[in-house]
Amino acid sequence: MKTLIPVAGSLPKRCAPRTPRIRRALQISGLTLAMTVLAGCDSGHQDLQTWMDETRQATPTVVEKVSEPKRFEPFRYRVSDQADPFSLGRLRIMVASASSSSGASLQPDLARRREALESFPLDTLRMVGNLRQGNTQVALLKADTALYQVRVGHHIGQNFGRVTRISESGVFVRELVQDAAGDWVERITELQLQESGK
User: Fold this and answer.
1) Is the pLDDT score of 60 beyond 80?
2) Rounded Cα gap, residues 130 and 138, in angstroms
3) pLDDT band for position 138 (cuts 50, 70, 90)
4) Which residues contact 108 (CB under 8 A, 6 or more apart)?
5) What radius of gyration, in Å, describes the C-alpha atoms of the chain?
6) Where in the chain does DSSP place strands (E)?
7) Is 68 helix (H, G, I), strand (E, B) or coil?
8) Contact 163, 153 (CB under 8 A)
9) Residue 24 and residue 17: Cα distance in Å, rounded?
């Protein structure tokens, strides 16, 4: 028995294609085999495609009717002989008259002499009792450790507070505070009677 040892770069004579026609025929048959295999993979989706087409045809198409757009009618300012509503001078007059009518009458009296309880914030004052002297109701307010007698008309708190009414259960105070626009506004606050346990 004879052993053939192939030399590098050469094929045995029986494996090597003999002509370019045979080589071309082998390429075409390999390509045909590959296409046949790939075409066989696609046949499994035909039933799915058929179902989707049937569903698409059976589903009714709903089209909502869009209403006609409204026709825009531009506004023509035909009153050129009257006062301009956007005039800065007119705006200043309106703001001045509004502020004079609403908040100008509410102003704290800065010239009067300050009372002792005006140095304490209102939330630090506690009503601990009340008593009656003749026809006058007097409230007992505690600030820190000192006890003060307060009557209607006295000033307390740091926001120009003035006592307007005293009852057995509380003291009503009208304060003057400034709002965001800088105008003075009234605020009514009540100091309620604190029980001895508090």
Assistant:
1) yes
2) 6
3) very high
4) 160, 176, 184
5) 50
6) 126-133, 136-143, 146-150, 155-156, 161-166, 170-178, 184-192
7) coil
8) yes
9) 10
Q: Do 185 and 103 form a contact (C-beta atoms < 8 A)?
A: yes
133-142, long-range: CB < 8 A, 24+ apart: 137/166, 137/167, 138/166, 139/163, 139/166, 139/171, 139/191, 141/117, 141/171, 141/191
Strands of the sheet containing 170-178, edge to edge, are 155-156, 161-166, 170-178, 184-192
Confidence bin at 32 (pLDDT 50/70/90)? confident
CA distances, 57 to each of 44, 53, 54, 60 (Å): 22, 6, 5, 8
CA distances for 45 relative to 50, 54, 145, angstroms: 9, 15, 94
Residues 6+ apart with CB under 8 A from 119: 158
b/e per residue 107-124 (b: at least 16 CB within 10 A): ebeeeeeeeebbebebee
Question: Nearest-5° angle of CA 76, CA 80, CA 85?
Answer: 90
Cα 134 from Cα 117, distance rounded (Å): 24
- Paired tokens of 47: 């039933």
**Structure token pair of residue 187:** 């605020």
Q: How many residues are recorded in the chain?
A: 198
Residue 184, pLDDT score: 84
